[in-house]
Amino acid sequence: MYLAKFFHRAPGNDDRELLLILESGGGEPHVLVSFVMGGSSEPCTRREFITAREAVAALRRAAEELRLEGYAETVHTQYQLRALPSDPKPKPAWQQGLDELLLSGIIEDGATQAALIAKLAATPAAQEPLYLWLAARHGFATAPKGHARALARAENARDTLGARRASRMPPYVWSLRPLKIEAFIQDLLSEVHFAAGRPQAALDAAQRAQEADGNQYRGGRIAWILAHCFPAREEEAFDQAARYAGLGGYEAITALPAYAAYVGRRAPASAKGRRASRTGS
Fold this sequence. Notes:
The protein is of the alpha+beta class. The protein has a domain at 1-80. It is built from 11 helices and 5 strands, in the order ββββαβαααααααααα. The N and C termini lie far apart (48 Å).
């Protein structure tokens, strides 16, 4: 996940970028880099962090230091950008608040999320799919048995994003792609449906999330639902894990005793196939 903040200090073109790179897994560090805009494409500083919480705290400190030095944050969000226009527009307070809400959600800071959700409710942020998803996600985390309310909120986020797409009115998604927000919303819908005892709906949402923004973790969740809720499709889940477990995301499947038995059955068949291949050659 790439999240960028841009800053301008008048007069002239004294511009800076802060880029936060958050890794979703695999043991890679989280990274915060800063750039002097309009200059070298190489970062002027680069710092690595073990936890997302440390990386987010560093981004917040760096942004505050720039503000104290007279820089104002601009509306720009594309992390590949390396030069700002001569008179960049300042980022509205509601967008800055929505950025903070996302950061608070990433590090699971429930108290800050609750405060920002309430603060932003009377601003344009409340009409954004990003806000609606984060508010629904926080509500479900704090009241996991409130299935009906969580589902209504998540579906509202999904439908609002779809309406924005249909009207060609771009949503505010910070530096993320709208498809990534769509996948996050489907992730939440899958969790809500599963908690409510609706495995088919949970599987459908999980598959839509994978279609929108696929990765091995979403693939692993699909396999997990298949293995636990659809006995007739257990072999399909194990086949998927056997192909992709090396990428990560399938640990919950490969730890199952039934998966170990599947691997045991599969090994003799694979060995027999290799012997036949050698004989044929």
